[in-house]
């Protein structure tokens, strides 16, 4: 997913970070402009378009009746799929999912699943025979860094956009979505930590840590990226940033 950039640009971004500055004049703990629009896909049960700076991710939710998994015969099924469209970035290629799209889908899935954002136990239809499956499709429309946060926010916004699904056989009063996990990605450049990395910042980062938290600040998922390590103190600082920034991002879900 990352591009090879010149050593001059790499040194420039690293030097700015040492001065606690960024190329776009943001503070290290500042997100780019964030917007969330819901209900854009009429054929889906729920949908949302999230923009973080120039990064755009569209999420759609579909419900289908399926056979349950043998180990959870009475619970619904959650499936997250991510598609990195070639039109969104010259680094994306057509074809089957690559490691980047697989990682993106898994990180979003883990935040929703581990937080128990959806009460899957309420999505059983006939015990051992039929349950509701919740499919979340993520489409990257424009990539300018920080896909994970945009995709996570889009998925949660789309789930909360589902009201009473207009699908045959639906009997519940409403869709059982309960919580709002939010992912915040913190990257390390040199000795500095910053949130919401731009594409250039991602390309020069030493390490990345995505932390998904709930409304009470508890952690429900984490994902480490990048080639270098993080100290215990840096992980604690990243959590502090994630908790504070998640509260800000969650305001866009109201």
Structure report:
The structure is a single chain. The protein is of the alpha+beta class. It has a single domain (7-253), classed as Ribosomal Protein S5, domain 2, CATH 3.30.230.70. Helix content is 27%, strand content 29%. It has helices at residues 7-18, 99-114, 147-161, 199-204, 232-250, and strands at 34-38, 46-52, 55-66, 77-84, 124-126, 130-142, 182-189, 192-195, 207-213, 219-225. The strands form two sheets. Strands 1, 2, 3, 4, 5 and 6 form a six-stranded mixed sheet that branches. The chain has a four-stranded antiparallel sheet with strand order 8-7-9-10, with helices on both faces. Strand 1 (34-38) and strand 2 form a beta hairpin. Helix 2 (99-114) packs across helix 3. The radius of gyration is 19 Å and the shape is elongated.
CATH topology: Ribosomal Protein S5, domain 2
CATH architecture: 2-Layer Sandwich
Detail the poorly predicted runs.
none
Largest sheet descriptor:
6 strands, mixed
* CATH superfamily (homologous) name: GHMP Kinase, N-terminal domain
Shape: elongated
Mean pLDDT, to the nearest integer, reads 93
């Amino acid at each position: 997913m990352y591009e090879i950039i010149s050593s001059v640009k790499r040194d420039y971004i690293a030097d700015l970070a040492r001065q606690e500055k960024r190329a776009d004049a943001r503070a290290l703990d500042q997100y780019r402009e964030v917007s969330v629009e819901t209900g854009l896909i009429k054929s889906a049960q729920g949908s949302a378009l999230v923009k973080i700076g120039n990064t755009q991710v569209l999420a759609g939710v579909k419900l289908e009746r399926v056979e349950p998994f043998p180990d959870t015969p009475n619970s619904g099924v959650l499936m997250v799929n991510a598609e990195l469209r070639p039109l969104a970035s010259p680094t994306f290629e057509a074809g089957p999912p690559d490691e980047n799209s697989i990682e993106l889908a898994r990180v979003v899935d883990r935040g929703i699943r581990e937080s128990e954002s959806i009460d899957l136990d309420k999505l059983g239809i006939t015990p051992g025979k039929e349950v509701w499956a919740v499919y979340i499709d993520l489409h990257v429309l424009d990539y300018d860094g920080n896909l994970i946060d945009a995709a996570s926010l889009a998925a949660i916004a789309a789930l909360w956009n589902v009201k009473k699904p207009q699908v045959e056989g639906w009997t519940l009063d409403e869709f059982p979505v309960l919580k709002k996990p939010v992912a915040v990605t913190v990257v390390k450049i040199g000795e500095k930590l910053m949130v919401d990395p731009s594409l250039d910042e991602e390309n020069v980062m030493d390490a990345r840590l995505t932390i998904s938290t709930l409304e009470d600040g508890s952690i429900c998922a984490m994902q480490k990226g990048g080639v270098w390590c993080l100290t215990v103190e840096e992980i604690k600082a990243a959590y502090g940033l994630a908790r504070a920034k998640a509260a800000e991002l969650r305001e866009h879900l109201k």
